[in-house]
Design brief:
Layout: E1 4-9, H1 10-22, E2 29-33, H2 35-39, H3 43-52, E3 57-60, H4 63-71, E4 77-80, H5 89-94, E5 98-101, H6 104-117, E6 121-126, H7 141-150, E7 154-160, H8 172-190, E8 198-201, H9 203-208, E9 216-219, E10 242-247, E11 250-254, E12 259-260, E13 266-267, E14 272-277, H10 296-310, E15 320-322, E16 325-329, E17 338-341, E18 352-355, E19 367-372, E20 375-384, E21 388-394
Parallel strand pairs: 1-19, 2-3, 2-9, 3-4, 4-5, 5-6, 6-7, 7-8, 8-9
Antiparallel strand pairs: 1-10, 10-18, 11-14, 12-13, 14-17, 15-16, 15-18, 16-17, 19-20, 20-21
Helix pairs in contact: 1-3
Length: 395
C-alpha cells in the first residue's frame, strides 16, 4: 500500500446520479458534466460508471477531455462546452464529438472541414445572455441563421446558455438570462433554424428552477456529492465519494517548548507527540483558493480566518482526522512532509490519517483507489519523458 492515496467511491457517484435523475422533469435528460477530470474524481472512471447506469450524454470543457473519453471507451454523446481550435475539428468530427459554436466564422470553417471529410459536424449554439464569456449576442442571430442555411455539413443539435448567478438567492438576474435565452431561441426559429434541444440548467438552476429543465440538465457538482452553495443543503441525499488518506511515517515524543517546522512558527505548549505525514503543498494539501468577498460580512469572515491562522487556528476548514479524532498541523505545511501534533491520541507508524485536499488541487500523481460493487482497483499516473503521461490500472 502507498503512504499517500485517494479513495474514490464510484458507488457514491452512482447514488448521486440516481438522486439527480429522480428530480428531472418528464422529458428531460441528464448531461453529466465531467470537466476538469470530473472535478478531480477521474473523468474516465466516473463516465464509465455512469454510462453503465444508462447516462447517455456527457459534457466537458476541452476537446482533449472529450478525446480521452472516446479513447477510453465512452460511446455516449459528448459535448465540448468551451471554444475549440480548427486543427482539432477533423478528429472531433471523426469521433462523433459535438462542438459548441459561438462565432459565425467558425461555422463556415467547420462546414468546409466536415465537407472534406464527408461527414456532418454536430454542434450546439452557445447564446450569450449575461455570463459575459462566450456565446452569440442577440445582434448576431440573423447572420448566424444565414450561415447555417448555407452550410450543408452542419447539424444543429441544440442551443444553450450558462447562468452566471444560478447559486445566488436573488433569482432576478437568472430569470433575466432565461428570458433573453428564450427570446434568442424564438428568433432563431423564426429565422428558420430548428433547435432540437434546449438546455440552460447547471446544478444550482436544476434545483431552483425545475421549469427550466427543458431537454437537458447539465449537472456536475451534484454528482460529486457537493451542493453549489450551503443554501441547497438537504435538497438531495448526496454522498461524498472523495477521501484522501496518508500513513504516519515518523513519530516522536517531545517535551514542552519544542519547535516544529520551517521558521519555528509552532512551539508545543506541553509535552506531546509529533507525527510526520508524507503530504504537502506539492500534493495540494494546505492550498486554498483566493476568495473574493461577496460583501462586508464575507470580507470580515475572511479577515477573521486569516487572523486566526496567524495564531495557529484553522477556521472553516475540514479537520485532519486520526482515529476519527481531529489533530492539528504543527507549524507550516511542507512541500512533501508535514508535521502534526497528535497530542494524546495513541498511535504508531503506519496509522492512517484522513486529510482535507480539494479535488481539483490534488496532485494527479497521487495514487487513486476506485471502489465499486465491493471491488477496488488502483490507478497510477506514469511519467514518460517530459510530457507523455500514461495510466496504469491494477486490481
Amino acid at each position: 500500500m502507498p503512504d499517500l492515496w485517494i479513495e474514490v467511491d464510484l458507488d457514491a457517484v452512482i447514488h448521486n446520479f440516481k438522486q439527480v435523475i429522480s428530480l428531472l422533469r418528464p422529458g428531460a435528460e441528464l448531461m453529466a458534466v465531467v470537466k476538469a477530470d470530473a472535478y478531480g474524481l477521474g473523468a474516465v472512471e466516473v463516465a464509465r460508471a455512469l454510462q453503465e447506469e444508462g447516462c447517455s450524454h456527457f459534457a466537458v470543457t476541452t476537446v482533449d477531455e472529450a478525446l480521452i473519453l472516446r479513447r477510453q471507451g465512452i460511446t455516449a454523446k459528448i459535448l465540448v462546452l468551451g471554444p475549440s481550435n480548427q486543427e482539432d475539428w477533423p478528429d472531433v468530427i471523426e469521433k462523433d464529438i459535438e462542438l459548441t459554436v459561438s462565432q459565425v466564422e467558425s461555422i463556415y470553417t467547420l462546414n468546409q472541414i466536415a465537407s472534406g471529410i464527408g461527414k456532418t459536424a454536430v454542434i450546439h449554439l452557445k447564446l450569450e445572455t449575461g455570463m459575459g464569456r462566450t456565446g452569440f449576442m442577440p445582434d448576431k442571430l440573423v447572420s448566424l441563421a444565414n450561415s447555417l442555411k448555407e452550410c450543408a455539413f452542419i447539424e444543429v443539435a441544440g442551443a444553450y446558455t450558462h447562468f452566471a448567478r444560478g447559486a445566488q438567492r436573488d433569482h432576478s438576474y437568472t430569470r433575466g438570462q432565461h428570458e433573453k435565452f428564450i427570446f434568442c431561441v424564438s428568433e432563431l426559429e423564426r429565422l428558420g433554424v430548428t433547435i432540437p434541444a434546449k438546455h440552460v440548467c447547471n446544478s444550482a438552476a436544476f434545483l431552483d428552477f425545475p421549469e427550466y429543465h427543458y431537454d437537458f440538465v447539465r449537472a456536475g457538482t451534484l454528482l460529486g456529492g457537493h451542493y453549489p452553495s450551503p443554501s441547497f443543503e438537504g435538497k438531495l441525499d448526496l454522498k461524498d465519494p472523495w477521501t484522501v488518506k496518508a500513513r504516519i511515517i515518523h513519530l516522536q515524543k517531545v517535551p514542552k517548548g519544542t519547535y516544529a517546522g520551517y521558521q519555528s512558527l509552532y512551539k508545543s505548549k506541553k509535552a506531546t507527540t509529533l507525527a510526520v505525514v508524507p503530504v504537502g503543498y506539492a500534493d495540494g494539501f494546505g492550498i486554498e483558493p483566493k476568495l473574493i468577498p461577496q460583501g462586508i460580512i464575507d470580507l470580515l469572515k475572511i479577515i477573521v480566518k486569516n487572523i486566526a491562522a496567524l495564531f495557529g487556528f484553522q477556521l472553516g476548514r475540514e479537520k485532519i482526522l486520526l482515529k476519527g479524532r481531529p489533530v492539528s498541523i504543527a507549524g507550516k505545511v511542507g512541500m512533501q512532509l508535514t508535521v502534526f501534533d497528535v497530542g494524546e491520541v495513541e498511535c504508531e507508524c503506519g496509522e492512517e490519517v484522513v486529510l482535507p485536499i480539494r479535488r481539483t488541487f490534488a496532485n494527479p500523481r497521487i495514487i487513486r483507489l476506485y471502489k465499486k460493487n465491493g471491488l477496488v482497483f488502483r490507478k497510477r499516473i506514469i511519467q514518460e519523458g517530459f510530457l507523455s503521461i500514461n495510466t496504469e490500472y491494477s486490481q
